[in-house]
Amino acid sequence: RESLHEAQTKLRSRDAELAKVQQDFAESHHRIANNLQIIMSFLQMQARSAPQSELKASLHTAVTRIEAVARLHAQLRRQASTSHLDFAEYLARLARDVSASTGMQCTVRAEPILLGEQLCVDLAIAVNELAINAAKYGRKSDGGAEAQISCSRDDQGGLIIMVRDRGPGMPGGFDSAGKVSHGFSFVRAIVAHHKG
Fold first, then answer.
1. Quick check: 82 pLDDT over 60?
2. Three-state SS for 115?
């Protein structure tokens, strides 16, 4: 029969192993976030020296997409859990960053929802794409822009994520199943992948 001392020793050993895993996890996300920051810096340098405004805009869009993933890894690095992330907290940070970078008033209505890391990465890319799209095309006639991001669960436990702006809406005859921008294609592919 195991003595109390042996049980305590095993428990301390497991605690030490768990602490090491969490430390390795945090360091891994720190390295990823740093690497993404380097990539963003290179793209921003290219955008500043790009001769064409269209190329500048494309590079800026690439930076915002990378930022969405970097923001997620920064949050994963800060938290204790190694498997799940509070997506509502992520959305609040995204809204602040989008507001600061675009001048659009972006708010969030979301209940705390814990999601797995890969699902968070996919949804982060999709929501970021929709928020940036709202900042570009969802402006009112006076030039102002507002958007609200909401996230909740339905009765079956599925996720309902919406990005609403106060702009004029899609042009007449718009077909979401037809030829669309790269960003809209990303969003459509992510939703389809998760059977949404």
1. no
2. strand
Contact 36, 65 (CB under 8 A): no
**CA-CA distance, 196 to 176, in Å (whole number)?**
15
Separation of alpha carbons 161 and 164, rounded Å: 10
Beta bridge partners of 85: 115
Average pLDDT across the chain, whole number:
79
pTM for the model: 0.68
Distance between CA atoms of residues 107 and 111, nearest Å: 13
Residues 6+ apart with CB under 8 A from 79: 85, 86
The number of C-alpha atoms within 13 Å of 131 and in the hemisphere containing its C-beta is 32
The residue whose two tokens read 């992510």 is 190
